[in-house]
């Protein structure tokens, strides 16, 4: 009975190891560590040593409990060595089995539960089942045969060994002098677990080895494939492609993307023939609607995915053939926080400082400086899961800046931040942009207005425009925007306001009327002086509280391009519908 009770908790141990590995991969912390330069072998060795030390503490406590309660079948002078070896081999093989199983899961809670269930069934229920079969002579042969199969799972081995040691004490009471080291007691169990150690180690390293993954993805990567022809491509996009491919001065771009394409196995094309470059010291605003492909593009540049075709270079290094050198130049703030819940802000920064190769002497200065820059000093001892969403984003930004990377990718860094925190983030980006290139994606378009030198807008996987902000405003803008706020919202005042703009500015268009606020768009041909003069002269008559005149914003440019894309989709859908109708008519 004691043996049965002991087997149950031991079967649960491997599930504690698999959860952390899957969780790091699930929250993208593992990828962030890879981007930061963490060596593949160092990652697995550090995990193994920590897990083994944790297990050895548990193992020692189990042996101490055996000693306290006088369980001689396990801790007698002639048995304790066998018990120690069985538990040690179980710990090593169980940890490595958990690592190998981790690749079958994408959710850490599922990984823990399934691993726990498997080990409970194999290490407890099947051990009892085999014992029951061996009691009856008619099924003894089947029981002996099954245990050779079940021993491939470490939890069965430890369960069988514990049961055999308990049985050994009973047989010794009848003067049957078997040894704990006999092959039928713990001998075969130890042999199996010793053989499982290199097998599970090989499986883990083989599946996760970056070289193997790179080779497998390169099979589907055609760097010199013929680029897709994009119809009606914007002239600025064409000029950017020509400059990146032909201009000698653009060879120094820290980021060069050439005819990049990403097609998923289901046939969806996320990125179509993207060509662009990011100059040294430039803040490059990368805009697009949800699903436009901007995050996929950044993920390719940070080597989370491989492109289907085309090439990309970071600091002159090909991301496919020179991946390690490219990663050394990169800082990455992912779209979703890749924080480890149980680490504090300060511990995160020290961890990634170590991964980046910063010496312990310098890391104190680096960590303090980044916490001050990103406004995290007061939260230095707060665990990441206790931080607000905005402060978690600050932590992700701080991690991306460790080591002074030459290129930093910010994927929606201000998501969840309040306006004050967002302004602090802008200051941080402006500070670091003096020494590196920044690629910034965001849904807060005022960030692009404040920070970006050049802007590219992406729709349906293609670049729709690219250029500096002033150029895009002039090209896609509608001129000026006049916003007037009135004291009286009565229908009479509304009618007078509409009549005023129709008379004074016949080419104006109503953009918005809401809550006593009128917004009109005026073409570039209208002189600003005339706008101010007309509004001042009729201020009392129109009951104007205040008004503002502004140039077209990047947000308006973005909205116009998005609306044009939506119209194109509607036209394409209508054409497909008409084609289907014609086909149906022809069939009848």
Automatic annotation (TrEMBL):
Gene3D superfamilies: P-loop containing nucleotide triphosphate hydrolases
Residue span(s) of domain ABC transporter: 255-485
Molecular-function annotations in GO: ABC-type transporter activity; ATP binding; ATP hydrolysis activity; lipid transporter activity
Any GO CC annotation of this UniProt entry: membrane
Major site of localization recorded for this protein: membrane
PROSITE patterns given in the database record: ABC_TRANSPORTER_1, ABC_TRANSPORTER_2
Keyword field contains Transmembrane helix: yes
Signal sequence extent: none
InterPro entries linked: AAA+_ATPase, ABC2_TM, ABC_transporter-like_ATP-bd, ABC_transporter-like_CS, ABCA, P-loop_NTPase, R2_ABCA1-4-like
Subcellular locations according to the entry: Membrane
Record's keyword annotation contains Transcription regulation: no
Domain of life, source organism: Eukaryota
Name used for this protein in its record: ABC transporter-like protein
Gene source species: Leishmania tarentolae
Lineage: Eukaryota, Discoba, Euglenozoa, Kinetoplastea, Metakinetoplastina
């Amino acid at each position: 009975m004691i043996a049965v009770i002991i087997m149950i908790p031991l079967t649960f141990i491997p599930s504690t190891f698999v959860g952390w590995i899957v969780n790091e991969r699930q929250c993208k912390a593992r990828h962030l560590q890879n981007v930061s330069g963490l060596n593949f072998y160092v990652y697995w060795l550090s995990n193994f040593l920590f897990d083994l030390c944790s297990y050895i503490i548990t193992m020692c406590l189990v042996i101490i409990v055996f000693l306290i309660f006088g369980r001689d079948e396990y801790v007698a002078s002639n048995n304790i060595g066998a018990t120690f070896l069985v538990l040690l081999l179980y710990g090593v093989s169980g940890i490595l089995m958990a690592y190998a199983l981790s690749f079958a899961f994408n959710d850490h809670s599922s990984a823990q539960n399934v691993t726990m269930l498997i080990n409970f069934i194999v290490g407890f229920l099947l051990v009892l089942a085999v014992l029951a079969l061996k009691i009856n002579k008619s099924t003894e042969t089947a029981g002996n045969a099954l245990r050779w199969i079940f021993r491939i799972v470490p939890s069965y081995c430890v369960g069988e060994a514990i049961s055999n040691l308990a049985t050994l004490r009973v047989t010794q009471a009848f003067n049957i002098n078997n040894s704990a080291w006999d092959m039928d007691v713990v001998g075969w169990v130890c042999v199996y677990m010793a053989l499982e150690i290199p097998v599970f180690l090989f499986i883990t390293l083989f599946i996760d080895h970056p070289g193997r993954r790179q080779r497998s993805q390169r099979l589907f990567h055609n760097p010199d494939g013929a680029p897709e022809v994009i119809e009606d491509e914007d002239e600025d996009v064409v000029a950017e492609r020509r400059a990146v491919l032909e201009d000698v001065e653009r060879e120094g771009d820290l980021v060069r993307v050439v005819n990049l394409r990403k097609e998923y196995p289901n046939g969806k094309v996320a990125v179509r023939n993207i060509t662009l470059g990011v100059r040294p010291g430039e803040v490059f605003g990368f805009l697009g609607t949800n699903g436009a492909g901007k995050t996929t593009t950044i993920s390719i540049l940070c080597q989370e995915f491989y492109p289907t075709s085309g090439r990309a270079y970071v600091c002159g290094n090909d991301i496919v053939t020179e991946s390690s050198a490219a990663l050394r130049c990169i800082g990455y703030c992912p779209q979703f926080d890749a924080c480890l819940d149980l680490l504090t802000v300060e511990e995160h920064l020290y961890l990634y400082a170590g991964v980046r190769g910063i010496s312990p002497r310098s890391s104190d200065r680096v960590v303090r400086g980044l916490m001050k820059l990103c406004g995290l000093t007061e939260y230095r001892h707060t665990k990441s899961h206790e931080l607000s969403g905005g402060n978690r984003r600050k932590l992700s930004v701080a991690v991306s800046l460790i080591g002074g990377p030459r290129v930093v990718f910010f994927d929606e860094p201000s998501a969840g931040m309040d306006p004050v925190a967002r302004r602090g983030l802008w200051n941080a980006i402006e500070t670091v942009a003096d020494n590196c290139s920044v690629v910034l994606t965001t849904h807060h378009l005022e960030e692009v207005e404040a920070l970006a030198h050049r802007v590219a807008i992406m729709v349906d996987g293609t670049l729709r425009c690219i250029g500096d902000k002033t150029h895009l405003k002039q090209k896609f803008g509608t001129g000026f925007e006049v916003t007037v706020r009135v004291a009286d919202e009565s229908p009479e005042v509304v009618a007078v306001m509409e009549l005023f703009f129709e008379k004074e500015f016949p080419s104006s268009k109503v953009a918005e009327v809401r809550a006593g606020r009128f917004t009109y768009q005026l073409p570039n041909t209208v002189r600003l002086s005339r706008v101010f003069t007309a509004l001042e002269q009729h201020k009392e008559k129109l009951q104007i509280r205040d008004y503002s005149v502004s140039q077209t914003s990047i947000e308006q440019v973005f909205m116009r391009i998005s609306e044009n894309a939506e119209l194109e989709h509607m036209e394409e859908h209508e054409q497909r519908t008409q084609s289907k109708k014609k086909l149906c008519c022809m069939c009848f």
